[in-house]
Automatic annotation (TrEMBL):
Name under which the protein is recorded: Tryptophan--tRNA ligase
Main location: cytoplasm
Protein's GO biological process: tryptophanyl-tRNA aminoacylation
PROSITE patterns: AA_TRNA_LIGASE_I
Top-level taxonomy: Bacteria, Pseudomonadati, Pseudomonadota, Alphaproteobacteria, Rhodospirillales
Residue numbers covered by motif 'HIGH' region: 12-20
Gene Ontology cellular component list: cytosol
Residues the entry annotates as binding L-tryptophan: D136
Motif 'KMSKS' region boundaries: 196-200
Xref: SUPFAM superfamilies: Nucleotidylyl transferase
Catalytic activity: tRNA(Trp) + L-tryptophan + ATP = L-tryptophyl-tRNA(Trp) + AMP + diphosphate + H(+)
Gene source species: Magnetospirillum aberrantis SpK
Positions contributing to ATP binding: Q11, P12, T13, G19, N20, G148, D149, D150, V187, K196, M197, S198, K199, S200
Amino acid sequence: QQKKRVFSGVQPTGKLHIGNYVGAISQWAENQDAYDNIFCVVDLHAITIPEAIEPKAFRAKCLEVAALYIACGIDPAKSTIFMQSHVPEHSELSWLLNCVTPLGWLYRMTQFKAKSGGSESVGTGLLDYPVLMAADILLYDTHFVPVGDDQKQHIEFTRDLAQRINTMFNAGLVIPEAQIRASGARVMGLDDPESKMSKSTGEQKKGHSIGILDEPNVIKKAIMSATTDCENEARFDHCGPGVKNLLTLYEVMSKQPREQIEAEFHGQGYGKLKKALVELTVEHLRPVRERYADLMNNQDHLHDVLKTGADRARAIAGTTVTRVRDGMGF
Ligand code: ADP
Ligand code: NA
């Protein structure tokens, strides 16, 4: 019995945060042995926000994300790690898919609406983002896509598109499923618990996010100044969104049952919860930061990992593109 295939990725933009870690990367690492894993640094996605891109910084950011995957526990001996742009089949399949994707499907995507803000001067790539994402996933006959809650709609889109291609061209694409954590799939901003913690905001605003690579004193400041409500409730289903966010982070990192966490912090004042979360987060991220520093001291090794990863990814992706091309009559 062959292992099921997992594919996922993170965009090399902004400041990677605990939401990316909890919602995505930690899940990849935890389930690594159960699946045949492919983890991609999705650099072609990153350029859909061209303002964010300055060539030198971009190159460094791409390598940073690859190093972070490994530092967070992805083992290159078990999982394939590669840079999206090193495998040209992503661009090729995405064009083939583009030509049969109804424009209306793309206009419905909430991420596009939010990121474009209704402006028509944004790059076409921003609208087209879900097609490239569908190509990423479908290229590898992916069964499961472990992602945060914000990507749900894009996975639904990918499933619909795969079904459409299979019906039109008998391409035999595997229909993927999202894998979304029951708790921690949508970490909220510490400064604004009404909106999702995000990389771009975290880069601009102190106190918005906890960076995966933040120093202990920065983590402490962010958590201690997190927005909470004035009640003293520390129960998951009875508190405001700011406290729920802190409780959820505590839950995911401590792996304790909710009842135990509530028993510990309910009616105590939020200072106690915040201090405990600072300690837990600092200890949790310390080894990641240390491994990251080691990896950045030996970048040749990182480049080797990415080369090996791209070679393996390309071999798989090539067969899928051939299937779709054949189906279309090329
Ligand atoms: P961002 O949205 O922060 O720019 P990406 O779009 O690169 O990050 O997403 C990388 C992964 O992290 C995706 O699986 C996404 O769903 C997940 N993710 C992003 N933000 C959060 C969050 N606040 N909580 C949980 N998961 C998140
Ligand atoms: Na996102």
